[in-house]
Amino acid sequence: MITGGKTNAFSVAGMSKRSEGFTLLEVIIAFALLASTVVVILQLFSADLRILTRSEDYIWMSAQAQAKMREVLDREDLKESMSSETTPDGYVTETTISKVLETRTRELPLELLEIVVKLTWQGGTSQRSMTLKTMKMVKKEQVGRM
Asked: Which residue ranges make up each domain of the chain?
């Protein structure tokens, strides 16, 4: 058959060797690219969900730690102490109150206390914790003075 002035030896009844459409190899490559793209997108969504869940835990625990810190700071009789409690929700709260800079405040009627609140909880497969620290000036106890 003669088309356009050239002879095509592979023409059969008007069909060329490369007919319209895709070869099997092209289709397989396209599916492989599509599948790998879908897998990457699903992994990104999965990672986002894990991060979102973890951040919700930290926000909740941050609120709990701040509430405990406010409770400690509102006390009138702050003294050096250490306490630990486990809540019904399953997290552990450790509170430590200790004197700091005693040599610098020896001659003052005030003392500086460091307050540390540490929350520990089970987050998924690992144990997580959050620590809040602050300081507060309090009057020294008037022991033996009248």
From this structure: 2-139
Sign of CA dihedral 137, 143, 84, 88: negative
Instruction: Enumerate residues 6+ apart whose C-beta is below 8 A from 80.
Output: 97, 98, 99, 113
Q: Which two tokens stand for residue 59?
A: 């926000």
Report CA torsion sign: 20, 21, 25, 30: positive
Q: What is the pLDDT of residues 89-124, one digit of tens each?
A: 888 999 999 888 877 777 888 888 899 999 998 877
Q: How far apart are the first and last CA of the chain?
A: 124
Could you report the per-residue pLDDT of 3-47, keeping only the tens digit for each? 555 555 555 555 555 567 788 888 999 999 999 999 998 888 888
3-class state of residue 83 by DSSP:
strand
Give the Cα separation of 139 and 146 in Å (integer): 15
